[in-house]
Amino acid sequence: MNGAESLVRTLVASGVEVCFANPGTSEMHFVAALDRVEGMRCVLGLFEGVVTGAADGWARMMDRPACTLLHLGPGLGNALANLHNATKAMTPVVNIVGDHATYHRQYDAPLTSDVEAVARPFSHWVHTSPDAKLVAAAGARAVAAAMTPPGAVATLILPADTAWNESDGPAPAPEIPPRARVSAEAVRGAAKALRSGEPALLLLGGMGMRERAGALAGRIAAGTGAKIMAQGSISRLERGAGRVPIGRVPYPVDLALPALAGVKHLILVGSKVPVAFFAYPGKPSVLTPPGCQVHVLGTAAEDLDHALEWLADEVGALHAAPVTPYLRTEPGTGPITPEGLGRSLAALLPEDAIVVDEGLTTGRGFFPATVASKPHTWLANTGGSIGIGLPLSLGAAIACPDRKVLTLQADGSAMYTLQSLWTMAREGLDVTVVLLSNRAYAILHNELMNVGANPGRKALDMLDIGRPDLDWVSLAKGMGVPGARVTEMAGFNRHLAAGLNTPGPYLIEVML
Amino acid sequence: MNGAESLVRTLVASGVEVCFANPGTSEMHFVAALDRVEGMRCVLGLFEGVVTGAADGWARMMDRPACTLLHLGPGLGNALANLHNATKAMTPVVNIVGDHATYHRQYDAPLTSDVEAVARPFSHWVHTSPDAKLVAAAGARAVAAAMTPPGAVATLILPADTAWNESDGPAPAPEIPPRARVSAEAVRGAAKALRSGEPALLLLGGMGMRERAGALAGRIAAGTGAKIMAQGSISRLERGAGRVPIGRVPYPVDLALPALAGVKHLILVGSKVPVAFFAYPGKPSVLTPPGCQVHVLGTAAEDLDHALEWLADEVGALHAAPVTPYLRTEPGTGPITPEGLGRSLAALLPEDAIVVDEGLTTGRGFFPATVASKPHTWLANTGGSIGIGLPLSLGAAIACPDRKVLTLQADGSAMYTLQSLWTMAREGLDVTVVLLSNRAYAILHNELMNVGANPGRKALDMLDIGRPDLDWVSLAKGMGVPGARVTEMAGFNRHLAAGLNTPGPYLIEVML
User: How far apart are CA B481 and CA B507, in angstroms?
Assistant: First the structure.
């Protein structure tokens, strides 16, 4: 058994059951090994950002890592933007990168680069296997590094000869350390703040945004008068009818400041102190009001369900919080507007759907609009690197074949990883993409004003992605995904229902 | 004048006249400054690999840098693959990357990363401007670093507040050191090898592949019986009728070894000792035969025209070498074959065309087929990171608006940077793309065999990019580029002539 096969067998034994791949020559033995090992599905992406974004989406739904397969330093380069998002989401990813054979690197062949240096800025753990006999153990360590709470990107670099030389067979699956329990001091500190009678906010992040944590946070809020909010960057939030309603910290500084105004005690539950996405002249970086005290109930790496349960006991919050009742709404009518789209989404969202949100400017209202829709999961961009929406959808659809995936996707962002559509078609994934076509980097129009820049024609040209207009129905068709363009709400409603009700991918280009 | 404007004015004064940009919030002041400064054209790309590949293409034709404009660490990540190729081509690039305001970085906002660390593996020079008053001087140093022979990628990181704060105005254009002259010892060493009577090869790279160097190398070869060859990685080669014919080191090891067999003296002229692109079990890494002596006439950073002239004098090679006569050929007929395509390209290539070659498996025969075509420039992938063809064409077309650009583009590679088509449409660039659709990572089929891997169905699926078939005419239409699909040579000939004879971009999908 060669090194590649020993690695694949180790990964399968460790619970890694999908490989998202864009391989090259140096990865051919790994690819060939996939045929000899049961239990590893291999999914091809035609661009590396598709691969890493899909691995992120898969793991957000499964809470364990998929692996990637990438081709040397430049292939890893293409993968970094979505690894950045995975890092900020604290998603476990086993990121496997082929490299030249160990003895070949000295010759500086054209594809040579320092792969470890490329990986390091976006990986918590980086290791180059020196030998085929050590690669299986390195694979187990990579899984452990990825899975150690809160979850991280672990990059394993695989020189070609460590894949093709003879190994000693697979390594045992690693032991994963459990989430640590929070200290009594942390719970007492939060409890004291909640009992102070001063305005308090439970800010949820990471596993604090899942259903049980949300219910517990709701119970505490109901018992103490505190508010609950999710952090701005949502890796995975369980929401909708039957769940405690949870808002989020708004993206624009001018909305975030009033949302957080008056908070005297900020209690972090797997989250961080909220800061502005960007700096703007004359605006603060930190969004909490002056004098606000910060209390850490638990970090993202800790057992937040346990912490919240303990805190609920500590403050005597015994009663379940009221949950959102299902609110039947009517789909939007007339011309297309963000509000109309929000109403239609709220009305038509199927039970247990996975909503992937990279709607940016147009999509900002869709989150509040769907608070009382049927229960669903919300996945969003966590690191601010645009181009995660389509790959995330792809990964989530592979993880959850029995659930509908609804992707709210801005056009400018979609262009970074549009190759995702091809993989959706190949794998027959049940993803309905609502492509919001405003033909602009609209968010930058606001940002130009926010930073006080005074744009002229050349500058505005850089924000305008019309001229020529992108035709998303043609782009989707070119990659095997059927689609339709809609110009009024009735068409949107019809095509959204059709997309959701038929299996396989479907793209609706919404002309804004 | 703010820091951004002081930087733009410095760049323009230093000969940087095009900015290839994919900006975000932190770059808005730079974008706004472009409106206030004459002399900088700004070209938008919808993906960062388009931006850096275009900057490479522009500078290969102009021998001075364009600048880029990229958005923080993840935007730079997307740009790295083509920066890798630029690095291997030794192309001068001023790579400008926005970052968070200096005071904002401490808060670890979602888009925060170590931008310097991301840049370093693919940049010869990296600097973060600490202050608006220093950014103009940093820009001049970046130009100097990019332009210092042989040419390099220089990355200047621009925190948002160094762009928006008040500056002291522009800095003077930098002094660029001239190319060093080679030593008498180097020339005498090469001359002695050439006079030895033993088989010698002049291996050309960098500026050694330009017209004058080629003519001088030809004269030396004619006078001494030496052979001439270009290195495998061709950044820019001047060739065709009226020029000395120059072959290149073949990509496959099994063809490169016989091509170099028998060489006793390898004389490097801006090139490196040829090595295998990848390591393969049982095959050598170094391609020169055992016992071959290596002589460095000049490095890529040195004045190679001068070195070759000196060497020609030294060996008494006084007579110009015979040049290739123009050979009229008939276009291919019948079903589409690589040979037929080669004949049609040879027949229809217009004078002074720029050929961009990322044809890979199918395209390998096009280089020999066009040796006696009308004189033209050949640009190719230098670093092995696929996805350079379309962006390189874009940059070359902007650099040379009066020349026709003909792009020979494999389908798998095209998918990495297909967003280039949109910029070609927006800018109305005169590029004819011959999209070679074999619906496979065909090169990997060979490589699977070369590395001795034994593929099964899952493995072969990873090399097959059909299922679903990509429809390139739809993809091009979706980005505003007209195109046609051809299934026999007559159609190819008609559409190639039409594409070349009409201004603006055109895509021909060739079904192989």
Answer: 7
Residues B498 and B415 in one domain: yes
Which among B71, B451, B470 is the top mutation candidate for probing chain A, defined by the most A β-carbons within 10 Å of its own β-carbon? B451
Is B474–A477 a contact, with Cβ atoms under 8 angstroms apart?
Answer: yes
Chain A residues inside the 8 Å CB shell of B273: 107
CA distances from A286 to A203, A377, B308, B456 (A): 15, 29, 63, 55
Tens of pLDDT, residue by residue over B281-340, are 999 999 999 999 999 999 999 999 999 999 999 999 999 999 999 999 999 999 999 999
Disruptive mutation site among B31, B83, B103, B166 for chain A (greatest number of A CBs within 10 Å): B31
Amino acid at A259: A
Chain A and chain B share a number of CB contacts under 8 A equal to: 330
Q: DSSP for A450-471, please give it.
A: HTT----HHHHHTTB--SSPP-
* B139 residue type, one letter: G
Here the CATH number for the domain that contains residue B504 is 3.40.50.970
pLDDT of residue A451: 78
Helices assigned H by DSSP within A37-165: 48-62, 72-89, 115-119, 135-147, 160-164
Count of domains in chain A?
Answer: 3
Q: Are residues A392 and A488 in the same domain?
A: yes
Domain region containing B82: 3-164
Could you tell me the pTM of the whole model?
A: 0.97
Q: Are residues A472 and A416 in the same domain?
A: yes
- Whether residue A36 and residue B122 make contact (CB cut-off 8 A), yes or no, is no
Residue B88: closest C-alpha in chain A: A110
The answer to whether the Cβ–Cβ distance between A117 and B121 falls below 8 Å is yes
Question: Is residue B227 scored above 90 in pLDDT?
Answer: yes
Q: How far apart are CA A264 and CA A267, in angstroms?
A: 10
User: Is A85 among the domain residues?
Assistant: yes
Inspect the interface and report whether the beta carbons of B458 and A161 lie closer than 8 Å. Answer: no
Q: 3-class DSSP state for residue A258?
A: helix
Tell me the per-residue pLDDT of A59-109, one tens digit each, with 9 for 90 and over: 999 999 999 999 999 999 999 999 999 999 999 999 999 999 999 999 999
| pLDDT of the residue at B450 | 79
